């Protein structure tokens, strides 16, 4: 998913989140994302910035600033195609358990 999002949209989302994962607040890197795309498209660079769709593409979500957050690879993969609100709720439940 992160590979198909236009660069200007990814950059706007990255800047809005101050270079941090929306879900876990870890610092993410656009440079790591670029390296990953250029050299090893199948590799997992955990601090690479990814575009995570709030409404997943599989459910009709668009590649837009309003429908995306900046996420680390781990959170993006853990969320899958579940709605963002469900993922956040599950993370909060685990934090208090």
Strand content: 5-15%
The average pLDDT value, as a whole number, equals: 85
CATH architecture: 3-Layer(aba) Sandwich
- Give the count of structural domains: 1
Number of strands: 2
Question: What do we call the CATH topology?
Answer: His-Me finger endonuclease fold
Strand order of the largest sheet: 1-2
Helix content: 40-55%
* Largest sheet properties: 2 strands, antiparallel
Oligomer: single chain
The top level CATH class name: Alpha Beta
Rg, alpha carbons: 13 Å
Distance between the termini: 32 Å
Describe the structure.
The protein has one domain: 3-Layer(aba) Sandwich (His-Me finger endonuclease fold), CATH 3.40.1800. The longest helix is centred in the last third of the chain and has 13 residues, at 84-96. The mean pLDDT is 85. By secondary structure, it is mainly alpha-helical. The chain contains 4 helices and 2 strands.
Please describe the topology of this protein.
Layout: H1 7-16, H2 30-39, E1 50-53, E2 68-71, H3 73-79, H4 84-96
Antiparallel strand pairs: 1-2
GO molecular function: endonuclease activity; nucleic acid binding; zinc ion binding
Keywords: Endonuclease, Hydrolase, Nuclease
Pfam families: HNH
């Amino acid at each position: 998913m992160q590979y198909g999002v236009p660069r200007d949209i990814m950059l706007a989302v990255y800047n809005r989140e101050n270079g941090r994962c929306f879900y876990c607040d870890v610092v993410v890197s656009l440079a790591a994302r670029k390296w990953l795309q250029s050299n090893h498209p199948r590799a997992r660079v955990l601090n690479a910035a990814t575009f995570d769709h709030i409404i997943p593409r599989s459910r009709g979500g668009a590649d837009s600033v309003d429908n995306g957050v900046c996420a680390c690879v781990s959170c993006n993969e853990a969320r899958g195609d579940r709605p963002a609100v469900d993922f956040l709720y599950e993370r909060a439940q685990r934090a208090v358990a």
